[in-house]
Design a protein that fits this description.
binds zinc ion; single chain; 119 residues
């Protein structure tokens, strides 16, 4: 996952964005199939990311672009104070890549930018 405020080797950032090679437009925008970011030149082939325009999550195991994560989460419906509410039943939940079925660790979910509240 590309992060704002972090410095990258320009060629490495081009690869992370999904570009074939380092093709920078006006030395500021990296436009690739996986990400489009605005970066500032810091000299010596190093650039600092100032804005992420778009970024497609990529599975850390198989490298596939994914827009779905399968989970084993179980939800109970509970009747409380006259209303039906949703309650998460188990606290241990497995998250899997739909492409390779590899289990995604909390650290990998961090890398992919999945917020804690919805895990
Ligand atoms: Zn995968």
């Amino acid at each position: 996952m590309i992060e704002v405020g972090k410095s990258y080797d320009a060629e490495e950032l081009a690869k992370l964005c999904g570009q074939e090679e380092d093709e920078r437009y006006g030395h500021h925008a990296f436009v690739g199939e996986r990400a489009t970011v605005i970066a500032q030149d810091e000299g010596n082939g190093v650039v600092k990311v100032v804005q992420i325009i778009s970024q497609t999550p990529v599975c850390p195991s198989c490298g596939e672009k994914i827009d779905t994560i399968h989970t084993s989460r179980t939800i109970n419906l509970i009747h409380k104070d006259g209303k039906w509410l949703e309650e998460q039943a188990d606290h241990y939940c497995i998250s899997q890549c739909p492409a390779c079925s590899e289990e995604l660790s909390p650290e990998e979910l961090d890398l992919m930018g999945v917020p804690n509240e919805i895990r």
